[in-house]
Amino acid sequence: MKTKHLIVILILSMLLATACDQAAYTPPMNGSSAAATSTQEKAAAAVDPDGGKETKASMEREKSEYQKTHSGESKSEKTGVGAYKDYSPAAVTAEQKAGQKVVLFFHANWCPTCQASDSAFRANPEKIPAGVTVLKLDYDTQTALKQKYGVVYQHTFVQIDNNSNLVALWIGDADMLAKEIK
């Protein structure tokens, strides 16, 4: 009788693990195809539209675009605790230029852990350390960024530097942010 119960538990655990891992990821190998390179270039362009070649005009354009999309700053930004915003390439650029540490939150609407983290960040912005901005993006549609940073699970957090290079990656919830940030 115990063996049957163990088998059922094992099967249910496997089904649950499979349901949580909706996307397969294969990292690009050395000498990867032009298509993989193209995907990486698109991901880089999504984070910094002018590819890091800043001009005064491009900086002003990015700043203007960012201000249009973020004119209603949250209360948390004004009090000095971290910020929680929706992802956009302009938001990444603006936060980097402002000297903020940027964390990308790969959120999926169907993920209970993601929903809990989203609610926690909105209800308790003090969970986000000062000087840190968490940018929420859609796990299901941001495939180029998932590939660039090696994200294979929803509720993954990726800290990037001012050149959009990976600094840290962790899978977890809102409570882990302060412990994992570099």
Strand content: 15-25%
Helix content: 40-55%
Helix count, per DSSP?
Answer: 8
Report how far the terminal alpha carbons are from each other. 50 Å
* Main sheet: strands, sense, barrel: 5 strands, mixed
Secondary-structure element pattern, one letter each: HHHHEHEHEHEEH
What global shape is seen? globular
Which spans have pLDDT < 50 for at least 5 consecutive residues?
A: 15-44, 70-80
- Computed structural class: alpha/beta
Question: What is the tally of beta strands?
Answer: 5
Radius of gyration: 19 Å
Oligomerization? single chain
- In spatial order, strands of the major sheet run 1-3-2-4-5
Overall pLDDT level: 73
